[in-house]
Amino acid sequence: MSEVQTAPPNPKLVRAADAIAVVHLGFVAFVVWTELLVLLGTVLGWEWIRDPVLRCVHLGLVGYVGVQDIFGKVCPLTIWENRLRDRAGQTRSNKSFIGKVVHQRLMCELDERTLRRIRMTFALVVTVTFVAVLPRF
Asked: Which residue, 11, 47, 83, 98, has most beta carbons within 10 Å?
């Protein structure tokens, strides 16, 4: 019996998908670290945490993710990465980006409903922080 030959993954499309994954990771790192630094800066009296551009961009990005979750939508970056991986001939996971990161880094399996709750809670925390520690306009 002969084996089915599969074409090797397209390296350009793989690199493009990997680049989107890196951008996605940067997005997540930015929103998480910014929140942590705002909270720490509030305690330590750092004035830069009240920068209106930083705070509005932060709130806007987290708000976008929150709205996506409310409507049950998948992040566009995840969609683009998955499409590129499909076109490249790579196998891919059906998990969301955060689901993959959580599984890979923490070695635990969280269902999408739990991940959605975590993202929504984080969006609520960022919103409360924005109101409690107002930027200086």
From this structure: 98
Question: One-letter amino acid identity for 17?
Answer: A
CB atoms under 10 Å from CB of 40, counted, come to 11
Find where tokens 């994954």 sit.
Answer: 21
pLDDT in tens, the chain (137 residues): 555 556 677 888 888 888 888 888 889 899 999 999 999 999 999 999 999 999 999 999 999 999 998 998 888 988 898 898 888 887 766 556 666 665 566 546 778 888 888 899 999 999 999 999 999 98
- Give the C-alpha separation, 95 to 71, whole Å: 18
CA distance 85 to 93: 10
Q: Using an 8 Å Cβ cutoff, are 31 and 126 in contact?
A: yes
- CA distances 118 to 44, 55, 63, 91, 124, Å, are 27, 21, 14, 27, 10
Q: Cite the DSSP H helix spans in 1-137.
A: 11-44, 52-70, 76-88, 97-106, 112-132
CB 42 within 8 A of CB 137: no
